[in-house]
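Re: How this chain folds, sequence and tokenised backbone to follow
Notation: Tokens come from a learned vocabulary of local backbone shapes, not from coordinates.
Start of record: The labelled sequence and token lines come straight after this line.
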Amino acid sequence: MDLVELFNQTPFVEHLGIELTEAEDGYAEGRLPFSEEMRSNNFGSVAHGGATYALADTVGGAAAISLAGDVTPTVDMRIDYLAPATSDLTATAEVSRFGSSLAMVHVDIHNAEGERVASAQGTYKTGGQGEATPWKGDEAPWEGHEQAQADRSTNEPSE
């Protein structure tokens, strides 16, 4: 199973309808189709900010994991809502800094018309989890994690 498949089979991601479409080399893309269940109230047609945030966090986390080769729990995320989200959403994420303990990821979210509706900056934990972490089982379940971890150990950036 590759990283995209792993994310797309995550229960929360499946529940919201998020689809990760790409995740490699510190870059990720994903989409979230607009649905009635995403509306922020019963009368309008604007997506709840939490749906936009979940898309940003999911795609940002995938970008970080693509470099780490291991789980990267979210430490912090700041999001700016720039316009009402009233249609399908797409997100692109790029790691702007990858360190031995933290990664910084920038995420842009656009609507179906290509207008940027939100911009987010996420911080993800890239090391120090140890083996006894609740985020993973005994083995990493995606193909390529060994290579990402090997690349990381031979090219450790300084903090």
Observations:
- Strands lie at 19-24, 27-32, 74-81, 89-98, 102-111, 116-125.
- The chain is about 25% helix and 30% strand.
- The helical segments are 3-8, 11-16, 49-68, 145-154.
